[in-house]
Structure formats: structure tokens, C-alpha cells
Design a protein that fits this description.
This protein has 147 residues and is mainly alpha-helical. The protein contains 6 helices and 2 strands; from the N terminus they run E-H-H-H-H-H-E-H. A two-stranded parallel sheet has the order 1-2.
Length: 147
């Protein structure tokens, strides 16, 4: 799999840094109890922290909102996924276990306070381009994930 950064994204975020981690021969299954317990405990501790401070006071969330604005996306309408996870926890709507890959992804997104995605390489054909999403793409994505 080849990954490239679009020229549009490079222009709007000239100092942007992106990462891709590839794992091979990973078995996705129900999460082990240790991971489920760790994710739940971590969410409970975040919930307690969020009772005393606002999400708007978390420097990483501020930075991601600034980044979204810099690329022309309204972060109040299309939130960074890490912020969405934090908002759920703030409402005590904890993220339930899904499977080992998604649970690890959510844990690291919460821990590092960054948006993360996880994708199955066997289902990706061609080059992956990191670019700025559009309204049309967002609508198509939502329709395809609901099908």
C-alpha cells in the first residue's frame, strides 16, 4: 500500500505531520478481558477529570480544532474523532468494547488525544491519499458505512 499527502493538504498544513503504522498477521477478535477492563477504567478516570475541567481546556483538543479550522473544516460541525470520544465520556456514555482492533484504536486515541483510524489492508486497493474531506465525501462515507 502506498500513501501520499495531497498537495491541497500540504499547502494548508505545511508543518503537518502524519503517521501510518502497518501491522501484518493480526487476528482481530473479541478483546481480551485485560483490554476491556483497562479501557473501561481509563474512561472512568477521564470522566472524573472532565468533571473538573472543560474539553476546551485540553491543549491537544485546542490544537486539533485549530488544525481543522486551518484546513477549512468547522470543528463544531465535524469534530476530530478524539474530541467526539471525549465528549461521549464527559456525558458518561462510555465507549463499549467492539473488537480488539477498534478497542486498541479507541484507547490510543483517548490516551494520546489524537484522531486515529484503523483500516483493513486487505480491503484497500491502490494508493491511499491523505487529503481534506468534502461535504460530498462525508455524505457518501456515512451512506456506505450504514449499508
Amino acid at each position: 500500500m502506498k500513501c501520499v499527502i495531497s498537495e491541497q493538504l500540504k499547502q494548508r498544513l505545511p508543518s503537518g505531520k502524519f503517521g501510518v503504522i502497518r501491522y501484518y498477521h493480526i487476528e482481530v477478535s473479541d478483546s481480551p478481558q485485560m483490554l476491556r477492563g483497562r479501557l473501561e477504567l481509563f474512561q472512568e478516570s477521564l470522566y472524573i477529570e472532565l468533571q473538573e475541567k472543560s474539553i476546551a481546556d485540553i491543549p491537544e483538543m485546542v490544537e486539533w480544532r485549530r488544525t481543522f479550522k486551518q484546513i477549512g473544516t468547522d470543528p463544531s460541525r465535524y469534530r476530530p474523532s478524539s474530541e467526539s470520544l471525549y465528549r461521549r465520556i464527559q456525558k458518561k456514555s462510555f465507549i463499549p468494547p467492539i473488537h480488539s482492533a477498534a478497542d486498541i484504536n479507541n484507547f490510543f486515541s483517548l490516551y494520546y488525544k489524537i484522531p486515529l483510524g484503523i483500516y483493513d489492508l486487505d480491503r484497500i486497493n491502490g494508493t491511499v491519499t491523505l487529503t481534506i474531506g468534502t461535504e460530498k465525501f462525508h455524505e457518501q462515507f456515512l451512506l456506505s458505512t450504514r449499508a
